[in-house]
Amino acid sequence: MQGIAGCFSWMRKSLVVPVLAVIVTVGCGGGGGSKVPPATRVDATGQVEFNGEPVPAGTVTFINKASGAIAVCPISNGTYTSERKKGPVPGPSSVTVVGKESAEGAFLWKGGWPKQVEVDESGFSEDFSIASKDVKPDDGKQLIDD
User: Fold this and answer.
1) Model's pTM, two decimal places?
2) Residue 22 CA to chain centroid, in angstroms?
3) Which of the 8 DSSP states describes residue 122?
4) Scanning 2, 16, 29, 38, which has its CA 20 to 30 A from the CA of 76?
5) What is the pLDDT of residues 92-128, one digit of tens each?
């Protein structure tokens, strides 16, 4: 019996090197990077107003519902815009608008203003008009304790 057990032990040991060689050679994904093409991104542009006034600074963030791809478009003097390589991915998306008094200034409202949109393959252009009644006022308190 010991001869058979010894044979199986030898076979297990002899398989370790070839199996490791295959794993090292193939690796995760074959070493060539992802074969999935990157998501197509489009331009995004528009105006953002709060109580009828241009929002001085902030962001318009797109999250594609299918892929989870995120695009963040800065707001400057009431206008948000993105470049094609950094814009949103076409399809249904959640948009969150965050407004600020200035780039380093206080928030105009607490949290983000949400909206569901459809990003077209030719690009996205929509103006957002936000009113005080649609958002929580920024009371100066932190949302998360330090």
Assistant:
1) 0.70
2) 35
3) T
4) 38
5) 999 999 999 999 999 999 889 999 999 999 999 999 9
Q: Measured between alpha carbons, how far is 73 from 34 in angstroms, rounded to an integer?
A: 26
Instruction: Scan for tokens 């070493």, then name that residue.
Output: 31
* DSSP letter string, 17-68: HHHHHHHHHHTTGGGS---SPPPP---EEEEEEETTEE--EEEEEEEETTT-
Contact, 126 vs 97, CB < 8 A?
Answer: no
Pairing state between β 44-50 and 124-125: parallel
- Nearest 5°: phi and psi at 18? -65, -40
For tokens 């105009």, name the residue: 108
Helices assigned H by DSSP within 75-145: none
